[in-house]
Write the structure tokens for this entry.
Amino acid sequence: MTVVFFGSEEQKMAMEHYGYPPYFGTMLNVFSIIGAVALVLPAVPARLKEWAYFGFALNFIGASVSNWAVDGFSFQVIFPLLFFVPLGISYFLFHKMEKAKAVG
């Protein structure tokens, strides 16, 4: 799946290729930005950060499934799943930091 940008022709073509409605790419972009901000800002409650991690995981899985369903198995199916590595490391470190806060 290609990185898509708000309202670009590439975004419209990608959403059409995968059979999604036109607004879906914009929605994904907005939610991804909100999720990234939630993970970066320290003032965001831990419960909301958990939902952001879940949202990113769901997004990566959805991208892989979409690629597989439309284009068959290829590297494009594996590629989104590679992002689980930094996401998992971030999630592990987030919980380690939360545990340290609770102790100290």
